[in-house]
Structures are given as C-alpha cells and as structure tokens.
Write a structure and sequence with these properties.
alpha/beta, 6 strands, single chain, 6-stranded mixed β-sheet, globular, 108 residues, 36% helix
Length: 108
C-alpha cells in the first residue's frame, strides 16, 4: 500500500545506513504522537549505540506529527544533538537543530 503511509495511524520505522558509512537515517512514516515517540526513542538510542559514532538523523518528512509530539521532538533533538527532518507545513519548522547549529550555539 505505497502512498497511503501518511493516512496510517500505525508508526513504521526503517533504519538506513549510508553506503559510505558516514550517516544513519531513521525514517518513520505514519502518525507520530507523544505516545508513539516512546516507542521510537529506544530505536534511536539502539541505532546510535550500534553506529559506532556515525551521525544519526531522524527523518519524519513522510509522517504526520502531532503538535505535542513536535514539542517533545524539539527537546529531544536538542538534548541528543540529533537532526530531525520534518515535512514543511504552514507554521511548521522544516528541520530541528542540525549538528552545525548546535555546535555553533554552544560556542557562542
């Protein structure tokens, strides 16, 4: 059922490793809620621990993210220095902080 992932209430997660081995992407589709984030966070932590120091990015561009979940993601991304990509929507941010942004903000 390709193409219907945005309307699905079920959260689906795929972990992709860059061919060069420099980046790991955790891509989620479906409906991201504050409750479903509690299942996503352990996946992120396990991926980071197995990545051997590789950069990890959470890609939620194909997911529907609730406002409460978005607030939690902002805090999580900042605490764990992890970029989060979101679907550009009216009034929505397109990315939560990149590594470069966090490094620069700490140096300032």
């Amino acid at each position: 059922m390709k193409g219907s992932t945005l309307t699905s209430e079920k959260l689906s997660v795929v972990v992709r490793v860059d061919v060069d081995g420099e980046q790991i992407q955790i891509a989620a589709t479906g409906h991201v809620t504050a409750q479903s984030l509690q299942g996503l966070y352990p996946v992120v932590q396990r991926t980071r621990s197995l990545g051997g120091g590789l950069g990890v990015e959470m890609d939620l561009t194909d997911a529907m993210v609730d406002p409460e979940a978005l607030d939690q993601l902002k805090v999580y991304a900042e605490l764990h220095e992890m970029p989060v990509k979101l679907n550009p929507a009216p009034g929505n941010v397109t990315a939560l902080p990149s590594r470069e942004f966090q490094t620069a903000s700490r140096a300032a």
